[in-house]
Amino acid sequence: MASAARRSRSAVAAASQRRPPKPVEYNILLTATLCLLAAGAVMVYSASSARTLLEGQGDGTAYLVKYLVFGAAGLVLLQLLARSGLEFLPRVTPGLLASRSSCSWPSSFRASASRSTARGGGSAPGRCSSSRRSS
Length: 135
Known about the structure:
The protein is mainly alpha-helical and about 140 residues long. It has a domain at about 25-85. Helices cover about 75% and strands about 0% of the residues.
């Protein structure tokens, strides 16, 4: 009898140490994320495989592998944020925004603007497209 009482106490203690069940929204978000990643992988592979095969650059899976690596890193980050909570995110956000806007966005914007201007489309950076004269 004493061993049965110990077992029931240990079962109660183990049940109290368990995490609460995850809400339904968590499973819906995870399923939607996985479906979007799968659809994106199909699109990346179908768009890049024919091009790389025609150009003779290999088997066409390089872009797919890169996409899957970044997708897996994103899923790991999603899980870490879901488990740890979002309390630290307001402190980190200004730094993330500053690093993103100062590093890659202006250079990619300048490159796309110069390409569109060189082709005759678009306007120069800082100018409004409606101010161009029609000939």
